[in-house]
Design goal:
The structure is a homodimer.
Chain A: H1 4-7, H2 18-35, H3 45-52, H4 56-62, H5 66-78, H6 89-99, H7 108-119, H8 123-149, H9 159-176, H10 187-197
Chain lengths: ~200, ~200
């Protein structure tokens, strides 16, 4: 079992080593328990070990504690960071807005909305959650700053409000299907163009 | 107990009749069970009756079934509809955006985010949920249409996208405290002005 600590970083293959399968089982068990409604408080290493069919020691050999395991498990839901091309601010924003609330794992739709209010009650959990979304948020902030610098966006831009205007509608739609009228493959384009142009008559 | 069916419509007073207290207890039990993580599926008239300390017949004398009781209980979380003054489109939008995600009951922060994904899996529950938010959404749609008619908003306004741009950021902030940088009493003003003016340089 000495290869346990690095196995999760190895490329996947149908014949991957037994230890990597244990890592997978542990992350899967964590996500399954959360998707079934477990709170972070109620989620214990014991419960995860039992669900994954491994011993607690197997988990502690790979992760220092519950928060580190949670961070890995929740990152797994999101997939890799998007990579803006850097040519057009509009196109980069469409790419980043399209990635908002997009999860490669269907359990995310159950886990994320329920998790966030809970996360906001605990400073530790809030930091954990910020660790997951901060890199994505920073990508968008940089695109907006570039737009201001290059004169494509208003010089007096309220960056934080602009981020909320771009991400809020997409997240509501992806997580909550808030406006059924808006289920549309072009939604990221419509949101970005709406935020760019504003709604006031000129 | 024959006054049971109309008691919930009577004005509240410290000396309200016993039957009204039973109605209160039933609605409170429903909200408590949801706030504790009960799914709509798992929420039964039996469970509500047990929690409220009443018989099932007491519930059925007041509500035809679980969905009608749920509708009353969830409406209770929201409070009364806002009432736009109709003078300035901007001011009306600030009022309506300020009411988005505002609940008079703190249990809403736990109930609403977790409920909506579930609601979206069942057409019956989706209708129930639309019954709760449709009147609020319609208020905003009418303000936007008035703005277009009076020439304050663009003639080619995409009304549904505009509604998403106005409500999405506020709802994310209220429900999920999405952008900690935006905790601010002026947030409705900042959102409305951002959506009115857009972010593109001119």
């Amino acid at each position: 079992m000495s290869d346990m600590t690095s196995a999760a970083d190895a490329p996947r293959s149908p014949g991957r080593p037994r230890s990597s399968r244990a890592d997978e089982a542990i992350v899967e068990a964590t996500l399954d328990l959360l998707a079934e409604g477990s709170t972070i408080e109620a989620l214990t290493i014991e419960a995860i070990a039992a669900r994954a069919g491994v011993g607690k020691a197997t988990i502690y050999r790979r992760w220092p504690g519950k928060d580190a395991l949670l961070l890995d498990a929740l990152r797994r839901l999101k997939g890799v960071l998007p990579n803006p091309a850097g040519h057009s601010v509009r196109d980069d924003l469409v790419l980043l807005v399209g990635a908002v609330g997009h999860n490669i794992d269907p359990r995310a739709a159950k886990i994320m909305p329920c998790l966030v209010p809970e996360v906001n009650r605990s400073p530790d959990h809030f930091r954990l959650y910020q660790n997951i979304i901060a890199p994505r948020r920073q990508l968008m902030r940089e695109v907006l700053r570039r737009g201001v610098r290059l004169g494509e966006l208003r010089a007096d831009l309220d960056i934080e409000v602009a981020m909320a205007l771009l991400t809020g509608p997409m997240l509501m739609q992806r997580m909550l299907r808030w406006h059924p009228e808006l289920d549309d493959v072009l939604l990221p384009d419509r949101i970005v163009d709406g935020v760019l142009d504003g709604i006031r008559a000129r």
